[in-house]
Design a protein that fits this description.
The protein is an all-alpha fold and about 130 residues long. The protein has four helices and no strands. The longest helix is centred in the first third of the chain and has 31 residues, at about 1-30.
Length: about 130
């Protein structure tokens, strides 16, 4: 139980680090370069995902006692469709929530990110991409 809480906590910290990068890229592209926020979310998502993958692989899901089931290359191949799904959920969800509520995209993006991070990204990373050998 304690190990599960530790893994979840580390994965959320990793997600937060990637999310800060993602959010920063989105804001910079939207506010400085005047790119529509749904497009900025895509580019921010790609950069944030690279950070998230690196931190999770080295620290979030790392264990010296139990090696990964897949090589880093295999993990990257599996990570790409997850990232595409995540970006689609975040971009579409942010657009939908922003359109329905008329709340600024900067806030709706944070709400959508939190949901996608826990219920989509974490589950796929824990049970598929960074799965341990037994």
């Amino acid at each position: 139980m304690l190990r599960s809480i530790l893994v979840f906590s580390k994965a959320q910290i990793s997600s937060f680090i990637g999310g800060v990068v993602d959010y920063g890229v989105m804001i910079a592209l939207t506010e400085l370069l005047h790119i529509h926020y749904t497009i900025s979310i895509v580019f921010g998502g790609i950069v944030g995902a690279a950070v998230n993958f690196s931190v999770n692989r080295v620290w979030g899901f790392y264990s010296k006692e139990t090696p990964y089931r897949y090589s880093v290359f295999q993990q990257l191949i599996m990570f790409c469709p997850m990232v595409l799904g995540s970006i689609a959920l975040k971009s579409g969800g942010t657009f939908l929530l922003t359109s329905l509520t008329k709340i600024d995209y900067k806030f709706t993006k944070l709400a959508v990110d939190a949901l996608v991070s826990v219920f989509f990204n974490f589950m796929l990373q824990k049970h598929w991409i960074f799965k341990k050998r037994r």
